[in-house]
Each structure stands twice: as structure tokens, then as C-alpha cells.
Amino acid sequence: MEYVIAVFIGLLYACGVYLILRRSIVKVILGVFVLSNATNLIIFLSGGIQRGGAPFIPEGAETVDPATISDPLPQALILTAIVISLGISAYILALKYRYFDVTGTHDLDQLKNTDQR
Amino acid sequence: MNNIILEKIARLFLRVIAVMSVLLLLRGHNSPGGGFIGGIVLATGFIYYGIIFGSDRIQSIIYFNTRIWMGIGLGLVLVAAVIPVFVGQAPLTGLWYIGEWPLVGTMHIGTPLLFDTGIFVGVTGLILSVIITIMEVLKWNT
Amino acid sequence: MILFALLLIPFSYLMLGLLIKKSGIKQRLALLFATVNFLWALALVPIVQFREIIVVQMGSWAAPYGISLVADRFSVLMLVVAAFVFFLTTIYATQSVDKARRKNGHFFFSFGILMGVNGSFMAGDLFNLYVWFEVMLMSSFILVSLGGERQQLEGSIKYLILNLISSLFFVAGIGLLYGKLGSLNLADLSQKMASATDNLAVLNPALILIFVGFSIKGALFPFFFWLPASYHTPPPAVTALFAGLLTKVGIYSLVRFYTLFLYYDHGFWNEVVLWMGGLSMVIGVIAASSQYDFRKILSFHIISQVGYVVIALGFFTVAGLTAALFFLVHNMLAKTNAFLVAGWVHRERGTLNLKVLGDMFNKSPVWGILFFISAFSLAGLPPLSGFFGKYLVLKAGIEADQIFITLVALFVGLFTLFSMVKIWMEVFWKRQPEDIAQPAPINLKPANWMLFSSVVMALAIVGMGLWAAPIVDYCQLAAEDLLTPSKYIDYVLGYH
């Protein structure tokens, strides 16, 4: 299972890199989203994959064998990363909207006005 | 949209979702759940309501401006973080008060619940503020 | 609590900023909270001198499992200087930033930056460092684009995308490191790396990813493009705040990461860092000398100055790290002040194009002298702070037998002087060109509070030059702490 997910992460990274190299800003933004999801999957994979072992100590027991449960920390980290990317997505889309309002273009090549002429 | 069935369902749906989100908030300390998820669930109820009735109606239900709600959420988090300092513990330490209550029996009340309530209110406020802004931009007021 | 308060102060401001509607009250509260934050950070100095490393375990969870806030001498130094810069830029912003921006949350988001900065200076584990980075970045994204002018939007798109990618590098690195070592606490990770020295090579991908992430944040040589593309677009008060705080957080994290993780393989990394630092210095200063915009020249100089800090880190001796810390502090002050003066010029003349400007010294000799102090401090003239910064870097370089890079640093100093003299001649000294159309001034009201904050900053620069000895001593103690990671580990994990 790890290998499948690893290959999948690689594919996502390829898609993301392809998208952020495009000229349209919308595609660049989509590329960033894809890349951030791929990164979240890396964190998920880093904790190891465990089938069906929720990280809870059963009622009545004092301890639990760490080999039988999944690592809760990466999941907490992913949750945090997802919340952060929620905020960033909202902001970046608003920024794109405003940019389109002001300039009427999607083209990254039109972004040269702030560079030195 | 003027559809009596949708309107009835939306009203009912919001109430059911509200109860469910509070349930998720409360059971978050021993079972899956918590303030963040509760807040998101509540916000989805409001989104459904807003799609049918428009963002003005959401605003009139939640009474305060969404930023006030976010502020209240942050305030609750702040209080929950600071309370342990006054009893000589490190900030954010979970403190519990276990007491007998009429009707419900033994109940644990603690600062983590307060913290989660803050997250609950803050997340709801945040998502609603995003939704209301988008609806205003799209002029989605039926 | 003593450390937690530094997060609490900006957090309470954020809460009150959401609850209170009147922008006049918010502005007064911002000044109050910035003052309190500065005083609190200052109060940490004697405590850290006495206790060496302050550790707070949040939520009473013990170190490798919980979240720790750690402040050693280096962190406290950065906290104090950041609080000082923040305090003065807040005063400055009350007059410099226009009313609409202040009403739409200029102070709110600058406190967001302060919270992120304070948090990253105290973060005791990698993931929290990432979270505080994001807090800081989110606020800075909004500050860059607040106002929504066309230029700003373009600058902020570049700034946003490149910084997001750097965060992704950083998180991917954290994920890989966690997968290999199973911990996130900086001290715990460092200890695990110390005991696993034989197969450090498997960690290299993770370390390189994190290193690249920090380098993008700190605007080092091949990764600096976001900085000159965006820093000249927002209002000058915002640029001053960014110049003082943002890249410096990247450099802080790089130093922390270097002394805790790359320490175990520093033979290899010293070379990398020296090359990157040297190239940043040279490229930054050459690019700056070809620019004709006040703020763009200064932005490119940020890159070049960061290079000095990084080569001093690459010498990897106590003297080198002392020089790096001293230079970092000097750079935060002098750079911010140069941008503060740029803000005044922008306010008076409505433009920052060197070809259009002229004759500003006659208009206000005081501001002229303020620019003189900060610019020639950056160029390294005695008795200003920059002289001692450069002197320490060069001395450490010669002692570490890195003659070539030391010579490069000397030449870069010459070019810095050239750029600064260029600004001085073009903006302050030459006659106003009469054949070029002049844009309208933005605001002609007297700028007393702007002047006040710039004067205080200039006094700090001069003071840092005249009384350099105690600061150098403090930096040396901090550098010694940094070069013995076992001390950090002992304090954080509670072996002490």
C-alpha cells in the first residue's frame, strides 16, 4: 500500500509542477493546491500506514501496543496543514478575483509591470 | 427561489444540523469530534440555508456580525489558555472540574471544552464570513 | 507564562481588533500593545542572562511529546529587536499609512505578523515553526495586497506563489524527517541525529528540502526572486516592517536549524552556505547598483546583507556566529530606518524614482541626516553599527582562514557604499531636475510621528556603534550557546 501511495504522490507532484509552470494564473493556483495536497499525503505516509487501528486506548486498558494502532500525530499535522491551506485557498482565490477585476487578464506574462523597464 | 418544500426543509435542516454540531462539539473529548468539525458542520447548515434564503437571512439569524463571532471565539480560546496560569500551571493545561449536577449526574467540565467552544464559534464565524462575502459579491440575495 | 505572554499580547490585540469597530480606538490600542510587547521582550533579557535557556512546556505535556516554547539568548535578542522594530513602525504607520488602509486592518494584520514572528522565534518544534511561519505569511500576504492597487496585486501574486512553494518544501521536509526519526521536537531530533551519525545520508533529502524552504524565506541567492518583485509595491510603512522582520525570521530559522541539525555534517554544509552567501552578496549588490528606484535598491540590498549573515554562519566558529548575530541586529535596525526615510520621501514627492527626485536635503536636513546615518551604517562607516558588524565578519573570516570570501565581502562593502552614495546624491543632493514632470505629493501635513520613530531608530543605530561592546559580549554568549547543541537539548528535554 505504501508503494501505491508513494507513486500517487509522485504523480500529484508531477501534475502540480506541470500546472504551476503554465501561463494562466488560475492554473498556477490550481497547481499550488495540488502540490499542497501531495505534501499532506507525504506527511500521512511518513507516519506509516496501519489498517483499521484507530489511535485510541480501549476502555479499561491502561496501555496499548503501539504496533497495532496508527500514529495519530501525522493526522493531527495534516489537519493543521489542511486548515492552513483552507485559509490560503480562500485568500488566493479572492486575490485572483480582485486581480482579474483590476486588470482583466489571466496571463502571467502581463505581470511584468512592476519589474524594471 | 420560492419553493415551499425547499424552504421548509431548509429550516428543519438548519435545526437538525445545529443539534448535531453541538453533539460533535461535546463528544470530542473521548470520541471522534471536536470544535473544528462541529463548526464546519454548523456552517454547512447555514450555507444550505443561505443558498435558499439569501445571505441577509443568515445575517439576521446569527444576529452579530461574523467578525464579532470570530472575536468571541478567539476570546474564549484566550480565556481557556490563560485560566491554568492563575492556578500555577503552564498555559493551555487542561483543568477539570468534576461535579454532581442535577438531571445529568456526574459531569466533567474543563478548560479544553471552553477551548473547543472557542474554536467552534471562531470556525463558524470564519466560514460564514467567507460565505456571506462571496454571496454579496455574487449578489445572491434571492 | 513569561514566554507565552509574547504570543498572548498580539493574540489579544487580534481578538480586540475583531470585536471593536472604531478605528481610532484600534489605533491607540495598537500603540499600547506594541509598547507592552516591547517592554515584555526587554524584560526577558535579564531573565535569560540568569536562566540561560527559558523553556515553557505548553499544556504541561513533557518535552518531546508536547509543544515547547524555548528562548535562549539568541531568541531573546531577536525578540527584543523585532519588538523594537515593530514598535517604531507602528508609530510610523499611524501617520504614514493612508486612512482607508488603516481602517481596513493595517494594524490588525501587522499584529498578525508580530504574532507569527514572536512564535517562530520561540518555537521549540519544527511543525510549530511551520505554523508560525504561516501565521506570519498569511498576514503579510494580506498586508502586501491591502489597498488593491494594480502594482500591489501583481507584486502580491508573485510573493504569494513563491512563498507558498517554499512552505511546501518545508512541510515536505518535515514529513520526511518525521518519517525517518519519529519526532518533531528540535531538541529531540538533534539528539537522535547525534546518536545516529553513521547513516545521516538518508536524512539528506529531508534536510535539503527544509534548507531550501528556509533559503526561500530568507531570500538567499538562487531563491531570492520574490523579494525585489514585491517589496517595492506596498506602502512604505509595510515595506519597512517586512524588511525588518520577514527575511530575518527565515535567517533565524536557518541559524537555528544549522546549529541543531546541520551541525553534525557541517563540513559539507559550510561550503554550501559559504557559496550561497557569497553569491547572494555579490548578485544582490550588483543588481542594486543597476536600479533607479529608491526602494528597489534597498530591496536588493536586503539580499546582499543577508549574504553577510550567512557567510558568517558558514565560518562556523564562535567569532563567526557572534558576527552573524551582531550583523543581523544591525541590519534589522539600519534597513528598517532606510525604508522609513524612503517612506517620508514618498510622502513628500509622490514617487521614489531617483531620476525624478532631487534636492531633498534642502527640504529637510534632519531627514537627510537620518538617511545618512542609516545608509552609511549599511555601507559600514565608523562609528556606526555597520562598521562593527562588518569588522566582526571580516575578522572572523580571516581567523577561519576563508580569505577569498572575506575579500569578496570587502568588495561588496565597496559596492554597497556606491549604491548608498548614489541614493544620497540623486535624492538628497542634486538639484531638482526641472525638465521632468513632477507627480503630486501624497500628503503635505507635518510628519512628526514619522520623524520621531526614524530618529529613535537612528539613535539606536548610533548607540549600537558607540556602545558595541556589551552587545558583542551578549552575542558572543549567544553564539557559544548555539555552538553547543547539547546544552539546548539538555534544557529542553529537562535533563538539566
Automatic annotation (TrEMBL), chain A:
Q: What is the designated name of this protein?
A: Na(+) H(+) antiporter subunit C
The UniProt transmembrane annotation reads 6-21, 28-49, 76-95
Q: Please name the source species.
A: Geofilum rubicundum JCM 15548
Q: Any idea which UniProt keywords this protein has? A: Cell membrane, Membrane, Transmembrane, Transmembrane helix
Localization, UniProt: Cell membrane
| Topology class, membrane | Multi-pass membrane protein
Q: Which family does it belong to?
A: Belongs to the CPA3 antiporters (TC 2.A.63) subunit C family.
On the tree of life, the source organism's domain of life is Bacteria
The UniProt entry's GO CC annotations, sorted and at most eight, read: plasma membrane
TrEMBL record, chain B:
Q: What keywords sit in the KW lines? A: Cell membrane, Membrane, Transmembrane, Transmembrane helix
Its annotated compartments are: Cell membrane
From the record, give the transmembrane residue ranges: 12-29, 35-53, 74-98, 118-138
A Pfam family name for this chain? MnhB
User: Does the entry feature the keyword Transmembrane, yes or no?
Assistant: yes
> What InterPro entries does the database record attribute to this sequence?
CPA3_antiporter_subunitB, MnhB
- GO CC aspect terms: plasma membrane
- Chief localization class? membrane
Q: Domain Na+/H+ antiporter MnhB subunit-related protein spans what residues? A: 5-128
Origin: domain of life: Bacteria
Q: How does this chain sit within the bilayer?
A: Multi-pass membrane protein
Report the sequence similarity comment from the record.
Answer: Belongs to the CPA3 antiporters (TC 2.A.63) subunit B family.
Protein name (Swiss-Prot/TrEMBL): Na(+) H(+) antiporter subunit B
- Native source species: Geofilum rubicundum JCM 15548
Question: What high-level taxonomic lineage is stated for the organism?
Answer: Bacteria, Pseudomonadati, Bacteroidota, Bacteroidia, Marinilabiliales
UniProtKB/TrEMBL annotation, chain C:
Domain named NADH:quinone oxidoreductase/Mrp antiporter transmembrane is located at 123-416
User: Does the keyword Cell membrane belong to this entry?
Assistant: yes
Q: How does it sit in the membrane?
A: Multi-pass membrane protein
Keyword match Cell membrane: yes
Q: Which GO terms describe its cellular component?
A: plasma membrane
Stated family: Belongs to the CPA3 antiporters (TC 2.A.63) subunit D family.
Q: Where, subcellularly, is it found? A: Cell membrane; Membrane
Residues passing through the membrane, by range: 6-22, 29-54, 74-93, 105-123, 129-148, 160-181, 201-227, 239-261, 273-294, 306-329, 366-391, 403-425, 449-469
- InterPro entries (alphabetical): CPA3_Na-H_Antiporter_D, NADH_UbQ_OxRdtase, ND/Mrp_TM
Instruction: State what protein this is by name.
Output: Na(+) H(+) antiporter subunit D
One example of the protein's molecular function in GO is:
NADH dehydrogenase (ubiquinone) activity
- Enumerate the Pfam families for this protein: Proton_antipo_M (PF00361)
Q: Which UniProt keywords apply?
A: Cell membrane, Membrane, Transmembrane, Transmembrane helix
GO:BP terms for this protein?
A: ATP synthesis coupled electron transport
Q: Which domain of life is it from?
A: Bacteria
